[in-house]
Design a protein that fits this description.
The protein has 25 helices and 23 strands. By secondary structure, it is an alpha/beta fold. The strands form six sheets. It has a nine-stranded parallel sheet. α19 packs parallel to α21. The radius of gyration is 26 Å and the shape is globular.
Amino acid sequence: VRRHVVPHRSAPPLVDEMETATIGFPRVGARRELKFALESYWKGNSDEKELLDVLHGVEQQAWNVQRQKGVDLIGLDGTLYDQVLDWIFYLGLAPERFGHLQGFEQYFAMARGTTGAPALDMSKWFDTNYHYLVPELDANTRPSLENLQAFLDKVLRGQQTVGKEHAVPLVIGPITLVHMGKLAGVTSKDVLNKLLPAYARMLKCLKDMDVVEVQIDEPFLCKSAAGSCKDELQWTYETLSKEGVPINLCTYYDDVCKDVYEALVGLPVEKVSLDFCGVPGALEPPCTLDLIKTCGFPSDKKLGAGVIDGRSVWAEDETGAQALDKLVALGVSKEKIVVQPSCPLLHVPYDVEMETLPPVLQGRLAFAVQKLDELVALASGNAVRASTKQQTTKTKSTIGSVDPSMFSRSMPFEERRKLQPSNPKFPTTTIGSFPQTQEIRRLRFALKKGRISEEEYNKLIDQQIAHAIGVQDGLGLDVLVHGEAERTDMVEFFGQQLDGFLHTQHGWVQSYGSRCVRPPIIYGDVSRPAPMTVREFKVAQALTSKPVKGMLTGPVTILNWSFPRKDISRKEQAFQLAMSLRAEVDDLQANGCVCLQMDDPALREGLPLKQERWAQYLEWAVQAFRLATAVAKPEVQIVTHLCYSDFGDILEAIDGMQADVLTIENSRSGDEMIKCLAKYGYNRDLGAGVYDVHSPVVPSANDIVSRIEMMIATGLLKGHHDRIWINPDCGLKTRQWEEVIPSLRNSVMAATMLRERVG
């Protein structure tokens, strides 16, 4: 590994009483420049150099903004796709199936798959809507630093941009990398034994570059399971501290348990960063201040105080200032406090100044750039405290107005299933969306600019619906979808039509790779002023004799993929959403819908990181789904979709949702969920994803047959082949029609083959 040596620049004198730091920042650019550069590169319209030029420009812009705002320590964030994938690549941890590839080709093959080499599994990053690539670690894992130069080059660029005294390299910690990965035939200790020498060599390189400190992210320590790896934690950081580089051991997304806290503050590191904010709207606030009050904080360490909420768009009120006051009152010296966000700012949009806000919200929102101002103001004692008054005042609790009977279907599953649409064995369908083509985007843009009327827009969207129905009918699918051409996003679409939501213009947040979402902001009571999906459903159903699914997003997913209010609980907001969706379900069935899909993939994502808090969350989350769907008549089939999370530990809750059909992502996860469902004894209809919608690879019919046969071999559904559905992993909006049509054709062909083989 080539090592850089940068001339030392002396730090300017400190003006603020407390230091400030960022621990991560939005990575795709203020106007999603990196997203468009990635998509251009994947289409073959630009080369590697052009892509890297955009990446470096986006990084430099973000670093400069942070320095110009007066932040003292700037986390050198930036990635082409995913920070965990970066460290799989930097440390040479690519699985053997990618061993014949190098450089960009290997990096993107791990992310998106290639012929003969399926992509790494993708899952939710803790309890956020960000997706990470899951490391695969086994006896053949052999860390190598062949690719580390890309990381060192980034550090050098950061030092040259903001100065050595301000530039902090960001590293995914070994404990988190291992415990958030898939281990096969090895223990976490086995893998750490192999990894730590590579981490130590990396730290030596950073020491030669005279870095001011290195931030090592260990968010895994906020999970309940962290209590069982305290010995690994001690041994790991005793080893890494020997390299002589100042270490900021950074935790976020929640508080840590008491035993983990005691272990953390006893480690030989210079700084410990803790989350003082937790989950916005959670029923229980984080216990970080209580831990410091009970256990103290060592005087020889700095405290990274995460008092600016990195997951909320609401401007700082008195909470951060109060937390800092309490820290000082508890005896933590101001000289030892570093004011920072509670977590990386990649979870909030870039800059609120790009928005045109209604008067009621002006001055009350803070995106990433504004949170920099809040950091500096808090550290200097000059914080401006925003009003937290909501636009609407709650006059009646939704929770209190719900009758218990509203949570249950009117007939048990086995009885109502006989009344629902009859399909052949191995029925075929899709999850909902079809490609969002340039033509569709141009239509939406023309409507936005007033170049076409809403009536003209609807007629043109109807043509897109007709095309989607025609393709599915022509291919021979059994249950159809209208394709969602009118929807930009499965949450944003509903946020635009529900009262109590603000829809932003530029509030994009990275979900993974080039995929960005624009979460709506809940600022008032939620209600449905008018039907939201009935028109498009009626258009689609009129075009075919086959059932067309009504397509809705579930209450917990809308909540988790929006920015919620902080003045009322998440449960109250979920129930408000559920009541609005319940009315939509009733309208759809009144207009002839007999198969209705309500996706709630964020059910698992919202699960608290502490296991002792699960039951309370799952109770209201499942109730919200049932409140939204239980109004359906027995003859209406309710479908739900779950994806990209580890659902194996909440099977009872999934069963408790009482959906008639469960569709899941499966192609990247090696049938793990299937085996869990079989062991649990799940007996309702199931559609396990048979191909990866995030890969350009078209699956063959034989591949799909093999997947279904493996599913049958687990004993799931015990011979009820009419309850096994064939569908993609997820929606198809990010794919091209040239990939979608052959993939669906092969799905139908696979269903025919299975009907002949299995009978």
